[in-house]
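Risk register update: the risk of archive-format incompatibility is retired. Evidence:
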Amino acid sequence: MKKFSEFRIGDSFFSTCSISDKELEEYLNFSRIKNAFLEEKQKGKQKLVSGRAILSRMEGEFTRLSQIYGNDIIFLGTDGDSEWGNRNTRFLKPLYTDQVLKLKFSISEKKEMNEEFGKIVIDYEGTNQNDEQIVLSKKNIYRIKKEPPH
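Archived output:
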């Protein structure tokens, strides 16, 4: 685990994951999303993964990184990117269940908040097994305790 003082703008961290049919179904049940397109059951075919499910898994993977896990860290929200009309996320290609999702997390900003907490801003990038970009999400803001618990 890295301390706030050890993080640098430009640092990147990597992970790989996939979302199974069962995990997607659990997410859709929990979130109560009602979308006929996502509910389409085609036997033997991979299902389209909803964008929010992808972002949820990405954040989950971020919190499990060895550099992050163990810190007191809280997601504060997102800031829009001026280059994208103040939006922060773009879905560029579909992701289907059981496809590989390669993740890159990069620190794009780091700021002091007060004596106890700092702020790191993380840009997410997800690509598939063919290195095609699936999703970009900029300016995901986290508050992080400067001295992690012992």
